[in-house]
């Protein structure tokens, strides 16, 4: 998973860049009665963070990126998803994080969340469209609350990869409003995004997607971000047959040998004196004793 963003200040011509990349390993835990749906654990690895900071920031860029990477590396996140791909539960970040680290980790969790697409249970064909209402958090309460509309369309069916697999190309447009409420007040941002995704129709998983997003923080910044995700299933889940093991049998006397050579077992050498070993001589019997008169 890779995400890069350019942040432009609303009141000046200055801009900064932010990017991170990481691998995710998903483990399905099973049904969860507490939060509903299926419990899944995501583990972060191969983390790389490249974040630019304002000149007045008290920590060096290198130290900040290293600390952020360490926070993400090996992190395990437990969340819940239903059968349609909708996220039912995503944990909140710890309260003791600095504001800057919170931004990095929150964007990583957001990238994880957008890596799942909601699809209807009914069979779909090219040209089909559907809408979903997106809502997370509690409106008017402390923390993050977001709501919006997601419009999706099946753009067509194609072949991709090697060996080729059939994928459905899905295009999803999202309009979302996010409100963060703290004890000192609330802050609102607007988000618009377009996701182009490929869904493996026979293997039933999201093959890849590209999310192009604009975030409008009125009076502060405008952010233009791009997220790219490629998923892969382990070989044990793709139905691929294990490689065939071939045994090389070159001995013509082996019971499983298949070939044109004849089995010619050499006779054991004669011992000194020219007599064959006792085990190779024909068996002898002693004559019965003469019968008495």
TrEMBL record:
Region Disordered, annotated ranges: 234-293
Composition skew (Low complexity), residue ranges: 272-284
Domain of life: Bacteria
Protein name: Uncharacterized protein
Species for this entry: Nannocystis pusilla
């Amino acid at each position: 998973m890779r995400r890069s963003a350019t942040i432009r200040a609303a009141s000046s011509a200055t801009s900064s860049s932010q990017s991170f990349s990481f691998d995710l390993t998903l483990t399905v835990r099973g049904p969860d009665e507490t939060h509903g749906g299926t419990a899944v654990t995501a583990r972060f690895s191969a983390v790389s963070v490249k974040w630019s900071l304002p000149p007045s920031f008290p920590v060096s860029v290198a130290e900040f990126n290293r600390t952020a990477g360490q926070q993400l590396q090996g992190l395990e996140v437990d969340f819940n998803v239903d059968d349609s791909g909708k996220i039912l539960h995503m944990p909140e970040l710890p309260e003791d994080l600095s504001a800057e680290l919170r931004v990095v980790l929150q964007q990583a969790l957001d990238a994880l969340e957008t890596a799942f697409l909601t699809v209807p249970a009914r069979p779909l064909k090219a040209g089909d469209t559907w809408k979903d209402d997106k809502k997370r958090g509690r409106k008017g309460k402390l923390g993050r609350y977001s709501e919006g509309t997601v419009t999706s369309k099946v753009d067509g069916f194609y072949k991709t990869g090697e060996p080729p697999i059939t994928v459905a190309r899905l295009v999803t447009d999202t309009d979302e409003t996010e409100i963060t409420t703290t004890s000192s007040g609330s802050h609102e941002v607007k988000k618009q995004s377009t996701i182009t995704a490929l869904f493996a129709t026979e293997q039933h998983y999201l093959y890849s997607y590209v999310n192009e997003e604009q975030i409008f923080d009125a009076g502060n910044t405008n952010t233009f971000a791009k997220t790219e995700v490629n998923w892969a299933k382990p070989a044990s889940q793709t139905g691929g047959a294990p490689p065939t093991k071939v045994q090389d049998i070159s001995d013509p006397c082996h019971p499983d040998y298949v070939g044109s050579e004849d089995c010619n077992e050499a006779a054991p050498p004669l011992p000194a004196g020219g007599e064959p070993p006792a085990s190779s001589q024909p068996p002898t019997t002693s004559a019965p004793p003469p019968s008495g008169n």
